[in-house]
Write a structure and sequence with these properties.
Elements lengths: L14 H23 L2 H29 L4 H23 L5 H32 L4 H12 L2
Helix pairs in contact: 1-2, 1-4, 2-3, 2-4, 2-5, 3-4
């Protein structure tokens, strides 16, 4: 297995979203390390961390695209919901002792790459324009503080 390397092809041009995506990549690489060490407890801990952070990111992203007036917001939320459900199945399988960590790691890498390059890139111009307008600065700082300051 290989590390998930962030590169410019994954950038949306929205700093806060790119920062969150980089954090997810870091969690995925921590999962890689835990698998390499064959430490089941750490695998479960990192899996919980990546899932929890990703769910928070999804909620933030969904609020942001709603506020920007993204016309495909509901479809984007559905993509997030389906992915979340899939990852929850992996968590259940792991809790029952099944060794699915490598498959999950592969799926996380592939899904995140495809999601950023396709779905997230689709909303990026609208959200960037909305953020540059400046009317959401207060909302943005409050929401970031509330959701990611733990």
């Amino acid at each position: 297995m290989f590390y998930f390397v962030w590169d410019s092809s994954l950038e949306t041009g929205i700093d806060i979203i790119d920062t969150q995506h980089r954090q997810i990549v870091d969690y995925i690489n921590r999962l890689h390390d835990a698998i390499a060490e064959n430490n089941r407890r750490t695998i479960h801990e990192v899996l919980d961390q990546v899932v929890n952070y990703t769910l928070t990111h999804f909620a933030f992203e969904e609020k942001m695209i709603e506020r920007a007036g993204y016309p495909h917001c509901e479809a984007h939320k559905e993509v997030h919901r389906v992915f979340t459900e899939r990852v929850q199945h992996y968590r259940i399988r792991m809790a029952h002792g099944e060794d699915v960590a490598k498959k999950l790691l592969s799926d996380l890498r592939i899904w995140l790459t495809n999601h950023i390059k396709n779905e997230d890139r689709d909303f990026a111009p609208l959200v960037k324009a909305h953020l540059q307008g400046g009317e959401d600065k207060g909302w943005l700082s409050k929401t970031l503080s509330r959701m990611f300051s733990r």
